[in-house]
Amino acid sequence: MAPSFDRHRRLRGHAGLRDMVRESHVRVTDFIYPLFVTHEQGRHPVLSMPGVDHLSLDELRRETHTLSELGIPAMMIFGIPAVKDERSSEAYAKEGIVQQAVRVVKAENPHMLVSTDVCLCQYNPAGHCGIVRGDQIVNDESLELIAATALSHVQAGADMVAPSDMMDGRIAAIRSVLDGAGYVQTPILSYAVKYASAFYGPFREAAHSAPAFGDRRTYQMDPANVREALREARSDVSEGADLLMVKPALAYMDVIRAIREEFDLPLAAYNVSGEYAMVKAAAERGWIDERAIVMELLTGLKRAGADVLITYFAKDAARYLRESV
Ligand code: PBG
After folding, report:
1. Into how many domains does the chain fold?
2. Is the separation of the CB atoms in 280 and 313 below 8 Å?
3. In this structure, which residue's CA is closest to atom 11 in ligand 1?
4. The pTM is what?
5. Residue 203: CB within 6 Å of ligand 1?
6. Beta-carbon neighbour count of residue 5 at 10 Å?
7. Which of 4, 173, 249, 267 is deepest in the core (most CB within 10 A)?
């Protein structure tokens, strides 16, 4: 009598067959590479994020070239301003660092998909994502500055804006300002589901944006919640978001899956700074196989339901993908 059980291993015996039946794929065209631009000269390493640097505008030009050669189609620009003030003025200044950066990238490669992080936290001394009054982060007054920031990025040539502030109503505010200025075709990638996470630690050092008092829990989400994620996403869809994002990624794969099942918009996962730093730190000690771990993590995000991967690993992963064909 032949034993009666399933032969799952039949599909695993041949490498070609394994490739053929693979359900999720990481492609270089999935990547958005985040980068940090400063008014300073040269390239300065971010200590907690090995392989990531603060870039001058000149270095940004070189980096654009490198990304283009690797086939990475998109970047997300974060700016580190020269001065911070209460009104976050440099966030929406014509000659602000992000606005200049956008022009530099577009001059170097007009085909690069340039998206910008739209937020105020790097630009005011309190280090909060909205206007601060006493110990409050005020919502409605912040919307005007956030929308002005988005508009100034688009006027500089940005292809897409990505608001990360988590104020209520920001997608509607940005959409209305962009449409009013004639930018009806510019998409908004909403950081719709953004948790108050310790995984942003290394980024806050990189962007000089740690809050001077309190934390971000009155506007970013409680890591314990998933139904609330659906409500956040629903609002952003109704306000006019074109793509949704879940952030961070690795501790939130169930949230990615829930959003994927409930909404039909393209979905991005932001594999954030702390997630990157943990992998780099363990790899530096020889405790893990970095290449295998990176590809397994990124594949997991695709399997969970993400279409777009925002990751500091984009350059490494682009090289791995190139070598593996
Ligand atoms: C700014 C912003 C943050 C990140 C992206 N945009 C930090 C924060 O909200 O505290 C985090 C990115 C990362 O950790 O890689 N609002």
Report:
1. 1
2. no
3. 200
4. 0.96
5. yes
6. 6
7. 249
